[in-house]
Amino acid sequence: xxxxxxxxxxxxFLSYSLLKVQDxxxxxxxxxxxxxxxxxxxxxxxxxxxxxxxxxxxxxxxLLQSRTRTDxxxxxxxxxxxxxxDELVEEWVPEPFTAPLTPAEVHELANLPVIQGASGPKPxxxxxxxxxxxxASYNFAGLAGNEQIKERAIETLRKYGLGSCGPxxxxxxxxxxxxxxxxxxxxxxxxxxIIYSQGFSTVASVIPAFCKRGDLIVADxxxxxxIHKGIDISxxxxxxxxxxxxxxxETVLESIEKERKKKGGKLTxxxxxxxxxxxNDGQMLDLPKLIELKQKYKxxxxxxxxxxxxxxxxxxxxxxxxxxxxxxxxxxxxGSIANSLCSAGGxxxxxxxxxxxxxxxxxxxxxSAAMPALMAVSASExxxxxxxQPSLLTTLHENIRAFRLILDAxxxxxxxxxxxxxxxxxxxxxxxxxxxxxxxxxxxxxxKLSLSPSKQSNPxxxxxxxxxxxxxxxxxxxxxxxxxxxLSQGVLITRAKRLRGQEPAEPRPSIRIxxxxxxxxxxxxxxxxxxxxxxxxxxxxxx
Amino acid sequence: MTSKxxxxxxxxxxxxxxxxxxxxxxxxxxxxxxxxxxGSRVSSPSTTPALSIASSSMYTSSSDDTEIAELVDDGxxxxxxxxxxxxVYTTRHxxxxxxxxxxxxxxxxxxxSRPVSGHVEEDPPYYILFTTYxxxxxxxxxxxxxxxxxxxxxxxxxxxxxPFNGYAALNSDFDSFYTRRLKTRLDDCFSRPVxxxxxxxxxxxxxxxxxxxxxxxxxxxxxRALNVSSYNYLGFAQARGACADAVxxxxxxxxxxxxGSRSQGxxxxxxxxxxxxxxxxxxxxDALITSxxxxxxxxxxxxxxxxxxxxxxxxxxxASIRFGVRLSxxxxxxFKHNDMKDLESLLREAISQGQPxxxxxxxxxxxxxxxxxSMEGTLLDLPAIVKLKQKYKxxxxxxEAHSIGALxxxxxxxxxYFNIPPHSIDILMGTFTKSxxxxxxxxxxxxxxxxxxxxxxxxxxxxxxxxxxxLTQIIASLSCITGVESSAPSSALTSSHxxxxxxxxxxxxxxxxxxxxxxxxxxxxxxxxxxxxxxxxLRRLAFNARYLSRALIKLGFITYGHADAPIVPLLxxxxxxxxxxxxLMLERKTPIVVVVVGYPATPLxxxxxxxxxxxxxxxxxxxxxxxxxxxxxDLIDLKHGSGDRWPLEEIKRRAVELVEME
Lengths: 543, 662
Ligand SMILES: Cc1ncc(COP(=O)(O)O)c(C=O)c1O
Known about the structure:
The complex is a heterodimer of chains A (543) and B (662). By secondary structure, chain A is an alpha/beta fold. Chain A has 2 domains: 103-143 and 391-451 and 471-542, Aspartate Aminotransferase, domain 1 (Alpha-Beta Complex), CATH 3.90.1150.10; 147-388, Type I PLP-dependent aspartate aminotransferase-like (Major domain) (Aspartate Aminotransferase, domain 2). Helices cover 46% and strands 11% of the residues of chain A. Chain A has 19 helices and 15 strands. In chain A, the strands form 4 sheets. Chain A has a 7-stranded mixed sheet, sandwiched between helices. A 4-stranded antiparallel sheet of chain A has the order 11-12-15-14, covered by helices on one side. A two-stranded antiparallel ribbon of chain A has the order 1-2. In chain A, helix 12 links the parallel strand 7 and strand 8 (300-304). The longest helix of chain A is centred in the N-terminal third of the chain and has 25 residues, at 3-27. The termini of chain A are far apart. In chain B, 34% of the residues lie in helices and 12% in strands. Chain B has 20 helices and 16 strands. Chain B has helices at 16-31, 126-153, 177-182, 242-254, 269-282, 293-298, 301-304, 319-328, 340-353, 382-392, 414-417, 447-456, 458-462, 468-482, 526-529, 532-555, 575-586, 619-635, 648-653, 655-660; strands at 35-37, 40-42, 194-195, 201-208, 217-227, 286-290, 310-314, 331-335, 365-370, 395-399, 427-431, 441-445, 567-573, 592-593, 595-597, 607-612. At the A-B interface, helix 1, helix 2, helix 3, helix 4 and helix 5 of A face helix 1, helix 2, strand 3, helix 4 and helix 5 of B. The complex binds pyridoxal-5'-phosphate. Pyridoxal-5'-phosphate sits between chains B (292-294, 297, 318, 320, 370, 374, 399, 401-402, 431, 433, 441) and A (367-369).
């Protein structure tokens, strides 16, 4: 073999450089200790030295592996000359960056209501210059414009300034943030809590912080957009169950369990993801039943309470208060600080382990500036108002009842349906034509569900078996007419604005009403009758 | 690194460095009249440094500071040169430093004849790299050993890492290894809780750990420290002054929240006004404001591109961009950080090869880059990119989170710095958290594009809209930077939301804004209206940035980034030096808080400390940082730069010359 001789110069070079390195190394403070450690460990177990060396090689390899590597080696790569590439570049015409607006879209943007001055129960609109009764903005407990909160906010401003100027990891953790986290945890009865600086981004960060590739998520078909985005980005396997149908959930869980028993394999993390009150239609979850299922099948529960926190339960603690379920039975309670506390941000409450995990893994927590101090203080103040003044929530609940009384009666004279739960502070109104003539061609499956209830939806597909058929364009237009009519009579309501084309499952068009405790029962009733007359005027004749 | 390891009491033979370190910190502690017990700092309330001393004539009688303990000169509360009778400062020195020396100003300008990325990233000596790898290795091995025994002897502590009762581990021991075994060792350097204004100085809530940094207890004392960590480029983090006054007025008028999403009942007149101002400010036709900077990227990018589109992204792009791109479903390719050659070859390949497998041409290609990279301090090579854009027809999205307000003679970001018309960039994105002392972000572009985003951006439909107080801070700080045109004050907000302040006038967009753009109730002092204050802030920031980055190089450190960038990363390499550096800085007589970053935010070997400068710093503050770096740099062996060196005193003396050198 000739190899040894050709390796000789290399070896001398190596031993020389090794000596040199050793020299330098021993000049370092603390190097003696390292050396002693390596030596002694080598004596005990030479195998480990080998292992360590492999680790070094591995580390170097990881480092050298550029993240920007191209896939030129792929079999699919076509070799082209520079000239050909130049020609292709010359020829390539990209699509326009964005499609131009249609006249309807221009109209929609131009007619978006703009509030002049403070938002609240009776704001003035820039568009019309008139004061309206506001059933569009989220002010459930009526905290918007609260003087006590304002006062505390101003105090905070004078002590902390406005912005936090950094993410929580880099000097953005302010004492008032820790106070708010403690306040929410105590309010809900969980061990711990973490706050995010925007409600919408919270659940989309919480889900991927826990659910990784290979994990399993079982989710409701009707969850809101943010949850869909969180599920998308987690890249976990997803199974869907029918909207707010816990029987369907149980079937799905059962089939997963069977499959797992058959296949074996290792235990993966499993999550159920759903909402307390659904943003898209106001339905409410049967929490005790869900807890029972989750415990039976050993799933963790991520519950989005964005619209139930601060609106249901005697003092607004959400579904756990309403159903008298200990909050500790839910692994992650996600909620919005913006919606009912009239501040900004979102939170996730749970055990200390769950919360601390997010402090390192919650993308929009780690990589975004912390919430302004005065927002955190306002939220804390809001919570203390909710606890000290139960009348806030009682008024809200009475107002919901009063409004629903009028609306539910309207449903008997108008082609509408109200999917929302009677206790929900957001009320959705959908157009429900009875006459099949206004439907698009009904598909074969659409009406057969009642005939063959044994057939289940496919859990791997987001589309349910018995999808409702609806004509988005037509319904949106009719509902917008109702909204415009109500506005002309002095009541501000809004269509539930959707991102058509981007929604994972297109929700049925609806009008979304937000009830508030800041209006008196009389005013709510007045607003209710305006909505009724607008519905009757636009839809009544379509019966 | 090993000397600081609490977990290894067996290392009885204390190396000399360790002894020196502890002696030094003891000395510093004594100097601060603090008694060291078990390595933790405990001090009686009476020795708490003065939290803030209002030193301007305007605020001497301020009653808001109930916490003023006693007038201890901690080197931060008073300017080193007391103000003369002619100079009246309107800021608090602790929030925004007093500096009247006109020499300590600089107007940044770009010389088109010089390449942008002229900066060379210097490599450290090999022994540094070698020992860095060794120390990671040691950390990994020791971590595994501790896990091995820990699981045997303290199973309870590991329960959440192991399958339990039919549940898989929430976070497996493997996935969390780095966090538990490496990051935890430095945990006292991260997430330090603070109170008060994150301005020129910041107040830390002192804490100690009795369980190897797993949990912390508050001692009840506070430490005021010089703040070179917060993103406060123009120094608008203030609880006093015109901006805070405007915000207070706004809280009174508008309350806390806008109560809803932009498209569903949460749009206020202030949103319309602020968007018009921002559009003007950055020189685009229209702008859309979102209540969170992260979501500005993550909720907008998916509205712009989708399947069949290609996103080309710089390898060091921010997490929010990556989040958005992942959501969009578009294909992604990354190019080497700021490397225009690599970018061009990637573009040529992408366009000529088309989509994978089918070779169909890409629908569109979107290049996403940042104006100023927050971990590197590097500046986007905008002139080169604009040239490439003409040839390769991609759309360009520039995230100006760190550059807006902080770069360019008029604070208008990279386009201003390089004197390139903003219209040559399709989308300018930025955040208000850094330069404006506010929160949230914006997207600016053509009227058609922004209108489309109003309909398609996830945040616009579903996220809470920006709170009125924050909008007010943006309006006030922004008009302070631009100045306000001295036309007749308008009586009310006149703009309607469909009519945005058009940039159709041929004047330079970098001029003052018309008074009609501001709500009439915002009051600004004459020096703010004239833009004088804004100019001073910009020029002070530019001076501080150049001074620190150049001085550090002259001291012999290896730094990254562009000289005009207010972010100055100083390379530490060793993971163990991150905590040493951070602790030593905090334990000085005048404490300094710094941000240290390591893997995975940076490549494995290039752990670093990152200084963020601010217009609120004075030259003396930068001198303080230099003193500290010089001393600590010698102590823990950080000076590996190869350029010529100046002695510290000479650097301080010739600061102005240093800054003005080409
Ligand atoms: C480049 C970049 N984009 C976006 C963001 C997010 O901004 P915010 O902190 O306002 O959420 C940051 C902040 O760290 C950033 O550096």
